[in-house]
Structure formats: C-alpha cells, structure tokens
Amino acid sequence: MHSPLADDLATLPHLLQTVRDYAVSVLDGLGERPVAPPPVAVPAAPLPAAGAGTAGALAAFQQRWAPGFSGSAGPRYLGFVTGGTTPAALAGDWLTGVFDQNGSNRSGSSAADLEKETVAWLGEMFGLGPGHTGAFVSGATMSNLVGLAIGREWIGRRLGVDVARQGLAALGPITVLSGTAHSSVYKALSILGAGRDALRPVATLPDREAVDVAALAEALEALDGRPAIVVANAGTVNTVDFDDLRAILALRERYPFWLHADAAFGGFAALSPEHAHLVDGLAEADSVCVDLHKWLNVPYDAAVQFTRRRDLQVDVFQNAAAYLPAVSGDPDFFHLTPENSRRLRALAAWFTLAAYGVAGHREIVTRAIAAAHRLGERLTAIPGVRLLAPVRLNVVCFSVPGDLPAVVRAIADSGEAFLTPTVYQGSPALRAAFSNWRTAESDADRVAGLLHKLLTS
C-alpha cells in the first residue's frame, strides 16, 4: 500500500479527531467569520506527486483555501436562498461519507429504503398525499427538470407519442406557461430539448409576481385543446409570491395541462400555521419541486422531486443493463432520476427530521419569517430605502439610494452580511433571504444597523 495511504490507515482515529477538532473550531467561529470575504487569487499548486497524507492535506487546505471560504453556513448569509446545516444533518452527512452507499438500488443495502422513508416523511410534512412518490436529486434545477420531463412525457401520451422512445422530434413543439418562472425552468427546458422559447410568460397580477389566472385561461384557450405544461410558483425568488393553486387547478375542468409546482423554498410555508394557506392545492399538482439545502438546512446538495405519475417517470428515466435490477412495481431509484450512481443524500435529511421532527423545523421556519419581517420593519426607518413588496414570507426585497453595486460590495467587505442584487419590476434592488437555522431577529437588527451605517454615513 502506498506509504501515505498506509500511514493514514494506521492513524485513522487520530486523523478523524484532528479533522473533528478543526471543524469544531470553524463552527465555533461561524457567527463572527467574515460572511463573504472578497475573493483573493490563490496561486495554483503543482499536481502532488507522492502526496502529503491527510495531515499535510489539511494543513495545506487551512493555509491556502480556508481563509477564502465564505461564512455561508452562518446566520447573516442572506444571499440567494441559502440554508445552513443543522447539527443532526451534519452528523448524517458525515456518516453518508463513512458508509459511502450507492443509493441507486436495493442490492445488498437498506439505503434505498431509508431514502423511501425520508421521501414519505417529507411528503407528509409538505401536505402531499400518498398518491405522490418521489426521489432525492441534487437541487431545485434537477427537481424542476425531472418534473418537466415527466410532464413532457404526459403531453406525448395525450398526443399518441412515446417521447422517451421516439424523441421530441416525433412530438413537435410543446408549450409551457408560467407567470414568473425561475431561471432553472428555462435551463431545464433547454436540457430537455424543448428549448427556452417553449416557455411563454403569462401576465401577472398588478404589482405582483403571481400569475393572473384569467390571463392563464386565455393562454390555454388559445392552444385550442393541445395539452401544455403550467409551471405554478409556490414562492417566487424576489418577493416569495404565490400563485393561486386552487384557481389554477379549477382550469383543468376546461383545459388539459400538466401542473408542475415550483415550491423550492415556498413549500416550507406548509409548516407555518399563519402561511400554510399559501400552498393550498399543492397536493393536487402533478409534480412538485422542493429544495432541501435551503430551508430544511441540510448540506449541499439535496432536493426532492414528487410526482403523481411514477409510471411516466419510469418511462423517462429507466435504465436497462444486464447488471442492473429490472423495473419492478417498486422501481429502484436509478429508474427515477437522471443519475445512475448517486450519493445517499437522504441520510442527512433523515437525521435532521428524526432529530427535530416537524416541530423543530416549524420553529426554524417561523423564526426565519419573524427575522425577515423584523428586517423589513427596520429598513423603513432608513432614509431612501424602500420596500418594493410586502414581506410575505422569508425574503425582503428593497431598493437603496446610491450606487447599488457599491452598496453590495460594501456590505460584503464589512464581513457582517451578504446580500444579493436583483431586478424587480425593472428596478435594481437588494434581496435578503432568511433560511438559516441559526438566524434570529438579533441578526436582522445587526444587518439593519449595518445598512443604516452604510447608507447614512
């Protein structure tokens, strides 16, 4: 055995303890770690010839790379929609690497059954019925892709075409309708061969990102009975606006369409008693996207996709080879997602659900919502700052006076927080997204204080 590898095996308990101690020191300092340090160029190192062993690799990482890593797992990283990692999820993620299971099938392991249980727990937590089945994927982009792929197959079957076998050329163009589709939907349509132009934006309600259902009905009417895909938003990126799922579902009495609900983080509204009505009707969607490395606070990468048509999902993603189990009544996961070999992403989610239950995750959600409202209230007292939309859930969208890129840089350079820019209704803006399990109202106050200082000094 190669000498550094043999030495590492002989001292493995000590090495793991060393890594554990370093990890604890990082986590202990997370609250005060620079949230988004300015990138500093790191000179490239030559490919190691013999290697320095784990201790040497750890030392090199600490010296070369760790100083430039963000505090994205901490309480004031409010860019994008970024969760952290609960203690239980971290334990599950570590054990995911320890056991190193290929969660693609049931051959010689109970890992797939653990994933099945976890998906069922998540479905119940989000209010989905037993008619929905699901699987873990890498993120919202892949979850949307899977849902749209099944929807594409559904359209084909309505028109007498087996798209999975005959290809999209046999089907012809498809139509996808949405009010404020996430960028990942366009990307998924490109990958699926339907093309980004397949998505036809539908008018939204005045000063809203929610679709105008009357305009959606007109767009469906114009298709003259040809089936389509409707992408409904359960939480838009800029303002966490929700389409009226019940009103959209009512349109199915007149028009044929596959309803895909993008509930990447808005689906977690189901956990808040005050906001659960926003996802009323989610259980009747044909496919649902939920991103877990956002508000479930499990490590990157993890999301889940649900559908009521597993039969069509198998038609799209099945894989046949002599060494692989054939499709059965309870198909293996490699028959359900783009991946064959796949990491057991479910274990971290299983751990955090087993550890904290629905009640613990409800508290995380409601605390984040309270922090978002707190920041929104504090911002109204800063001269020149204007909320561009009500704080509906966990995102604050607002404009600031002066040069927006300069403000974004100043926030990041302070080390106190990280916010991402956006454009809302043609206006440059900032958005602060609250989803980290550590974040409290005191963090909202700290961010508000920073913005007041930067904008009034």
TrEMBL record:
Pfam families: Pyridoxal_deC. Transmembrane segments: none annotated. It comes from Actinoplanes sandaracinus. InterPro entries: Aromatic_deC, PyrdxlP-dep_de-COase, PyrdxlP-dep_Trfase, PyrdxlP-dep_Trfase_major, PyrdxlP-dep_Trfase_small, Pyridoxal-P_BS. Keywords: Decarboxylase, Lyase, Pyridoxal phosphate. Belongs to the group II decarboxylase family. Its cofactor is pyridoxal 5'-phosphate. It comes from the Bacteria. This is Pyridoxal-dependent decarboxylase. The lineage of its organism: Bacteria, Bacillati, Actinomycetota, Actinomycetes, Micromonosporales. Coiled coil: none annotated.
